[in-house]
Specification:
InterPro entries: B30.2/SPRY, B30.2/SPRY_sf, Butyrophylin_SPRY, ConA-like_dom_sf, PRY, SPRY_dom, TRIM/RBCC. The protein is α+β, with helices and mostly antiparallel strands. Helices cover 27% and strands 25% of the residues. It is elongated.
């Protein structure tokens, strides 16, 4: 039989063991709580970031919607001026389409007419305010769009940069660029089928948009026009039929903002 001393020792050892187990369990519970707390904090931080990002995207979409509505309120009825068209260009009867032809048209060579570069201006000029229009470029491999001053040189070879009164973007060899002198390559999300042109004459702003998805393409800012400006169109030549599609001044449709 165990002595009373041995019993007391056994009781003490059991108590110590129970205390050790209790402490271990509390430490484990504390460690789990800290880990869970860290996970919750990380999850909360992620949710806060996602919320901020969504709010920023919503704000941007609201801004784009308001901008689109503003531009729609500033639409103008742009038509082509046959008196400025290069003789190799073919214009539709309603003045809304232009494409390159294979033969020279029998037209007088007036001071207003481009005689070498296959270009044409809009019939309506602007010397104040804001205006917006859209041009369908679907199916084309080459085009140039924008605005130009009334006093531009229309004879012989021309240099189409702001210094000489042009604010344009173009498509060449699958590459889009703003003709800022030097050219600025444009990084776009897709291949535009319609291009929107917005001008704020008084603010000196010319902006271009992919009108199908309402993405901003490029803006010329701080422009001092100082004279009347006109929409500018260059459909390019046929190039064996690969660029035979016309440029079309198209009706403006409200597209979903992406």
């Amino acid at each position: 039989m165990f002595s009373s001393g041995c019993c007391k020792l056994a009781v003490v050892l059991v108590c110590v063991l129970l205390l050790a187990v209790t402490i271990a369990l509390r430490i484990t519970t504390l460690n789990f709580s800290r880990a869970e707390k860290a996970q919750l904090e990380e999850r909360n931080a992620n949710l806060t970031h996602d919320k901020s990002q969504l709010e920023a995207e919503l704000s941007a979409m609201t801004g784009e919607r308001d901008e689109l509505q503003r531009r729609l309120s500033e639409l103008v009825n742009v038509t082509l001026d046959p008196d400025t068209a290069n003789p190799y260009l073919i214009l539709s009867a309603d003045g809304k389409e232009v494409k390159g032809g294979d033969t020279r048209q029998n037209v007088p060579d007036t001071p207003k007419r481009f005689n070498k570069v296959v270009s044409v201006l809009g019939k309506e000029g602007f010397s104040s305010g804001k205006f917006y229009y859209e041009v369908q470029v679907k199916g084309k491999t080459k085009w140039t769009l924008g605005v130009a001053k009334e006093s531009i040189d229309r004879k012989g070879s021309i240099t189409v940069i702001p210094k000489y009164g042009y604010w344009l973007i173009w498509l060449r060899d699958g590459t889009y660029a703003a003709l800022a002198g030097p050219s600025v390559p444009l990084s776009l999300k897709g291949k535009p089928q319609r291009v929107g042109v917005f001008v704020d004459y008084d603010a000196g702003l010319v902006s271009f948009y992919d009108a199908d998805c309402w993405h901003h393409m490029y803006s010329f800012t701080g422009v001092s026009f100082a004279e009347k400006i006109y929409p500018y169109f260059y459909p390019g030549v046929n190039e064996g039929g690969s660029n035979s599609a016309p440029l079309i001044i198209s009706p403006v449709y409200i597209c979903p903002i992406k």
